[in-house]
Specification:
alpha/beta, 353 residues, homotetramer, seven-stranded parallel sheet
């Protein structure tokens, strides 16, 4: 059994990986570490886990991190993983980090991200020496690199949806890579467990609100990953919106077509691109199922349409922001890193409605 | 492998059992029968199933029902199962019916229910000869009967929550059995997949509405089951309310205490009553987690408080109306009927939020 | 023009009275006082008010309170009004307080409330000498007292709905006054503007949660007011629930009938009781419209049913918790206190859906 | 008093104008005509109106339409108004039509719309001779024409938000008129009162779904109106999405800038463009309040940001789809047509939350 330590076990991100690992046949949770709710069973503050996981939360003290385990999941905010990843690696553990700490391959790229992220505020990376060892964790695109990696930066939730929605079109040269506009819609759990005015029920209920307009940090890694895939610089205007749902992300992507194609051509292209991928479903032309088909699963559901009059491609990508957008994708990375079947622990049938 | 035929496969009830059986190691779905969407893959109108179940829906013709299978699940409205159960049994299949058709042990009892149910309208039972063979399917209370049964009437969603909430208090004589009042809250999926003015989004969003006040058909079977458990006639005023959520039921139950007890006494009583039950969680005094802890699982979450000033017990029961309130409980019944481990196919970890 | 000073102008309660007074032809807002957001236009943090009210919020310093105005509305938490009401009265202003500070006619009664209210914690009243001068502000029941009062305690939101739902039945002796059970459902704005884990969108969305079971402070004033109306001691078990809506309260009230009556009899009784009342609508038998008909208005919508089998009356009362449950009722009190037409500023047509 | 006849009084569109006219001092409702719920008081099926408007609905027979009134509001689906407008005009009434029937100035333009609208299906206009007399009813842009008109085509809900969001940028030449992309989000009331699978609560709750991707009929009139304003052909890719709210539209508009400007420049441009307009609020740079500030009012709330890196303008427009997007804008048109103050009957203070 692979021994997993979860750092940041008391937030939604930690919760997500706990929920998944409880059904994983090859991985056991050895430690739940955090800085809040220490000394309580996790089911005290997440009562749905009662009887499923009543394990005690322990203090995320520096000496504990990476000790006695084969895998550390940093389900932590930005700038935690970068402090402890080196020691975890040195102790022989593999590391997956949820934050932006290990999504970038150079201190320079990190700086661009750090400037954009409101909670990072432009601060420099604390372990720049690791930035050549980390891998950006989207298995559908970078599976081979992840297989060999000991340090994976799990992507941002919006980035997963954008990148998987656009990668086939970018790689094939179907669209002008400077013309991309993405309008994102996210459920409120994307903001985490901590209450704030932005996530107060009466303010969100009945409301739709754009935020960080053309200034969201996930645009940086999306441009980086798509440039990597397509071999060309990417121009991206990304505007996220809060919508009054708990879980789920929909990214509606717009780009200028370089060729005169129809929806069936796009279908063929996408289907081939994602052939054999267990977690990407490409829907046939005319079927745009919305966010809810993906909720509760590790799937990314992709659909698209062609606006022939204006020469534009529209692609929508739907994910569960806490699964394919976070813990599910992290577990998929872990499965790849440890040479396990990629779907292990991720075979949930979705429930509807 | 047990071969299961689902009749009424295109509604939420049929969908629920499809979703569960996809992960059941001992049961395979052989037929999806229905009167609507015949000839389409089920994933055409339930797109979340795409890739999980793309099986074709076939016509629920009389000759098909019960043929070539070991189990028929009637996920049908009232008065369908009663027409075809006899032939299914005669062909050697075991039968579970979701409706009120086989919840009552006599034509007389059925009549009372039939008068109350708006869609039955007082019509007589069509197979009264079967009414001595059926068993009311709440495994926690009637497990032995279910084990020997070939025909199980799966209970009403509200009834499951009410009965499990009150059974320990009724059986132990803790409460006056004539004093029971239940205020129910249900998610809108309880009304099924068919659109109507009552379930129109703009009418339900932001709204809470009582309906069938002191006149809901689930009260009949609840009184019957609790009388069976407690050996005394039950008086029950039940008022259901529609609340703007998709899934879930909460029943808040009020009754006059016959003894001066505290919350800890109730805890001890309930804990002992449900000791070993895999699908009932009794929460400790002071913890009332709401509906959401039970969503996505086959659990019934029970909590309670004592109003000493007024000598009343308050018990709340939370279930997922489509799982413990319908398909999940049905599968639990099936597992009992076929001598399988009761949790098989029902071990889902709940996701939150 | 009556000059109104609003203390606590930056919460939902203060906002509610601002919204109403903007359309009141006889009252002008002179001061918006608060301890938060001081120095900002109110439309900075309530952007919907932009262009309607851009008045500056000023510091609620002790010397300002009650100065230069004819009316002080304390839209403040418990234990603020009791510190400043005496000086406001001394300066000639009339006072309406939203909290529990002036709902009780004696320090002893206040103590019972104070023990129950989690944020009061049993502390004694700070101005007990005022407790003979205050009036409990439900105009439908205590209009004459309010007319003569200079100090009105505006009732709790749940209390308004419970009291108006039950007053006719209690006064007429129709029900056993010791048998009352109320199951309340409230929108989340009832918890105020301050974010907390309880009101975090992902925790409330899709959820229904009971709280302060048989222990909510509004039960105290409800028993007091109904005892006043009926001349008999009241027994009341009250269980409130959070439901995922922004605005609105529904109270479902259960009580044992002392007479054999039908729904039409109850209709006649209620209609007569509330004849001429501009803000109580009694719906005919069989019509139970839910919460949403009352939203955006100062109405209390009352409906009912008789459970003849169990000899019980069921009455439901629906209000907008921020209007008839708070600011609207406060303005109704103000209109009565100043001899103005009771509907002034409160004639909003409801919008639907 | 102006005598108004409402045709199609039993849908959300008819309801919206009823709600407004109840508070209009110069207009009285003389007839509520419809083809459903005939012979019932409108408050029977819209119970929130009880006591506000209990007027009987009468049959919308051809001979009634336009008789005995000064104003006919066709709150009807497409292709009703075009059958009866001529007779209403001939009888001396002014006409406002909610549908696409009178939004286009030629049969040719109508044809393009008719091809796109799923419920019109390409059928030809039935009164093409009227298509030179009608005016497109956005008062902020076409006030003078409306003042002289007897026949006004009220715009589509999405079109109002798009047009008001983009008009200043188009007219000033700030943006490339061929580069426009609009991502729309609408509340479910936009689909009307009639239940359907698309608007079934369990399907919409927790969901966000794009529809008629780059194929929505409101794009036609938006291009027409913006071309009229800007004097240049418009290219527009418009993708609407259903979001789980009852009321409200947000349009997020993207376009390529022709000049290097900052947010303050855009603010100045927009503020000047809409100076004196009672129903357009231009928010200062950095303030993007979301949909909810506009709900319950006739306002269009506009905000914007500049994506300098990509040379794009982002403008968001928020409206209440049933007010500024339908009945409110219709009443504004009526006020202009009859020479009344434009805000009459539309001065509602918004309520929050």
């Amino acid at each position: 059994m692979i021994r997993a330590q979860i750092v940041g076990a008391t937030g939604y991100g930690g919760l997500g990986i706990i929920e998944l690992l409880l059904r994983h046949p090859e991985i056991q949770i050895v430690d739940l570490l955090a800085k809040t709710d220490v000394g309580k069973p996790v089911s005290d503050f997440f009562p749905h886990l009662r009887g499923f996981c009543d394990q005690m939360v322990e203090d995320a003290s520096p000496e504990r991190i990476g000790a006695g385990c084969d895998l550390v999941i940093f389900a932590t905010p930005d700038r935690v993983g970068m402090q402890y990843a080196a020691q975890a690696l040195a102790r022989g553990a593999r590391v997956v980090d949820y934050s932006g700490d290990f999504r970038f391959e150079s201190a320079e790229r990190y700086r661009e991200y750090a400037m954009r992220h409101p909670s990072v505020g432009g601060k420099p990376h604390l372990s720049p020496e690791l930035l050549s060892r980390n891998v950006y964790g989207i298995p559908e695109l970078f599976r081979e690199r992840i297989r060999d990696a000991r340090l994976v930066g799990n992507p941002g939730c919006f980035a997963v949806a954008m990148i998987l929605s656009l990668a086939p079109a970018v790689k094939s040269g179907l669209i002008d890579p400077r013309s991309i506009i993405v309008d994102g819609k996210t459920g409120i759990s994307g903001g985490g467990k901590k209450p704030s005015a932005t996530f107060h029920f009466p303010d969100r209920d009945g409301n739709v609100t754009p935020y960080r307009i053309a200034n969201h940090q996930h645009a940086i890694e999306t441009k980086m990953a798509l440039a990597d895939v397509g071999g060309q610089a990417i121009g991206l205007t990304f505007v996220p919106h809060l919508v009054p749902i708990s879980r789920g992300i929909l990214t509606t992507c717009y780009a200028t077509l370089r060729q005169d194609v129809g929806a069936q051509d796009v279908y063929d292209l996408y289907r081939e691109f994602y052939a054999g991928e267990p977690f990407v479903r490409v829907f046939p032309p005319g079927v745009t199922p919305g966010i809810k088909t993906a909720i509760g699963t590790n799937l990314c559901d992709v659909s698209y349409a062609v606006d022939r009059e204006n020469g534009r491609l529209v692609v929508t990508g739907a994910i569960d922001n806490l699964l394919k957008g976070q813990a599910g994708n992290a577990l998929q990375n872990v499965n790849v890193m440890f040479g396990l079947p990629e779907m292990l622990g991720l075979e949930r049938t979705p429930l509807y409605p």
